[in-house]
Amino acid sequence: MAAAAPGALGALRTVGVRLVAACCARLGPAAWARGTAPRRGYSSEVKTEDELRVRHLEEENRGIVVLGINRAYGKNALSKNLLKMLSKAVDALKSDKKVRTIIIRSEVPGIFCAGADLKERAKMHSSEVGPFVSKIRSVINDIANLPVPTIAAIDGLALGGGLELALACDIRVAASSAKMGLVETKLAIIPGGGTQRLPRAIGMSLAKELIFSARVLDGQEAKAVGLISHVLEQNQEGDAAYRKALDLAREFLPQGPVAMRVAKLAINQGMEVDLVTGLAIEEACYAQTISTKDRLEGLLAFKEKRPPRYKGE
After folding, report:
1. Are the C-beta atoms of residues 13 and 36 closer than 8 Å to each other?
2. Residue from 161, 162, 181, 278 carrying the catalytic annotation
3. If you ran DSSP here, which 8-state letter would residue 96 be given?
């Protein structure tokens, strides 16, 4: 692939460019299939006893993966076992070049994720609590660092760690009836994965207000403060947010796979630095697309007035 952009923009810029160029180089283009299944067309490998259902959609939805949290008896709370399953799934997906977009949703009506499993935590020795919270933070960070677009479909309650899980996703959509909040201060603790991402999503002042008050917002209120991108009236099936997330994922499918991954990297890295360094990161990431076969295919498809057939190469 093309080398990182050269230039002398100072030590900070040079470090930023080299860092991102190295990250881009590791992306590695690969052949990706694309397509969509009937509305609920899933692959068959689903174990009903699993607390996390990993579904690779088929046909015209091919490339979309749905992570369905399915822990009804615990209100989808983050237990040791669920964290283990999430970690395993994310680890597999991050290196799967056939994956184009990931949706995180609940299989349990009215609940997205109620946060950490406090009943399980109450049985822990004090020495176990720190490592458990660190594991939650680690899994959430791994989700945030997935190379493809991620969408949280919030069709119900998302409190504490549940909202932190959603904040790690690139895009959040919710039903108007959903409830969201970082409520940890009610328990005399702080959000273990929300004090940094919430201010970045809605601004420092509002984030402080919500965390200090432990306030819970409905879907309309969350949309008003910028916490979510779309709010939908809930449907009879209770999956309005999921259906919207699926529509968004379908919009992403036709785009160039390498470009999607590099664009996400450029945005994520660039938002953490000053503008000059951010522009250098953008330049370095753009360079990674120049030598790809997909870029040439895009130009040819435009010339021939046909849809492009990208392969992630």
Report:
1. no
2. 161
3. -
